[in-house]
Amino acid sequence: MNMSENKLALIVGGSRGIGRAIVLRLAREGFDIWLTCLSNIDAANKVKEEVEKIGRECEVFVFDIADFAAVKRALEKKTDERVPDVVVYNAGIAKDNLLVFMTKEEWDSVLHTNLDGFYHVMRTVIFPMLREKRGRIVIISSTSGEIGQAGQVNYSASKAGLIGAAKALAREVARKNIWVNVVAPGVIDTEMTKDLPKDRILPMIPMQRFGTAEEVASVVAFLCAEEHMYIHGQVIGVNGGLAI
After folding, report:
1. Within 10 A of 84 (CB to CB), how many other CB atoms are there?
2. Which of 42, 48, 121, 234 is the most buried (most CB within 10 A)?
3. 230 is catalytic
């Protein structure tokens, strides 16, 4: 099913891992792509080339989502000219440490990027979407934001905050024909998880394996492209049963 011809998806954090998989899946669904990255321009440009091979347009934006002024400079005028049909907020960082040893910088940088970044992006793009009275918003949270994880007090707090923000936003914009949902991945096989101790983690996952970025992207694509939609303000786990 492809109901999205000539539609536009803004993927915040789209150069690697889950973000890259989401970009390519939505491109195959017929979306043109705006993808953002912080600094890895080479990776972003490779994704752009892949999107163009699929036959869709792609534009790369480079900025720090923790910087409100930078987000506005990059996106405000663009979203006035062309309003995204879909916004996927996937950007985020992790700086794991036990709270007793966690530095102020480790706390602040994760919260500023993961949670403040959501405000910076959505505050910039939400008015054009409201004006058009249409859109889909998908926020990538984490199982850590649902059930917590030792050594990730900062990361869990930021991802739980995204869930709360999404649910509140969903109540604000539903009447304007804008859907808001959350996808919460568990342990996904990406560069971010390559050093995790699999022998200790796999016994906690009923499916006995890590997930793939493509499995997350398939759920995001459904929420973005399915025509018959009555899912709103929900958190959909993609975690192999890690959180039941």
Report:
1. 25
2. 121
3. no
Buried b (16+ CB within 10 A) or exposed e, 54-64: bebebebbebb
Whether the per-residue pLDDT at 2 is higher than 50: the answer is: no
Residues 52 and 202: their CA atoms lie apart, in Å, by 37
Rounded to whole angstroms, how far apart are CA atoms 113 and 158? Answer: 9
- pTM, full prediction: 0.94
- Region of 61 (left: φ > 0; alpha: ψ -120 to 50; beta: rest) is beta
**Cβ atoms 212, 186 nearer than 8 A:** no
Helices 104-111 and 153-173: crossing angle in degrees, nearest 10, is: 20
CB 238 within 8 A of CB 186: yes
Strands (E), the chain: 7-12, 31-37, 58-62, 86-89, 135-140, 178-185, 235-238
Nearest to 179 by CA among 223, 232, 128, 129: 232
pLDDT tens for each residue of 8-50: 999 999 999 999 999 999 999 999 999 999 988 999 999 999 9
Per-position DSSP letters for 121-163, written without gaps between them: HHHHHHHHHHHHT-EEEEEE--HHHHH--TTBHHHHHHHHHHH
Mean pLDDT of the chain: 94
Question: 144 Cβ partners below 8 Å, 6+ apart?
Answer: 152, 155, 156, 159
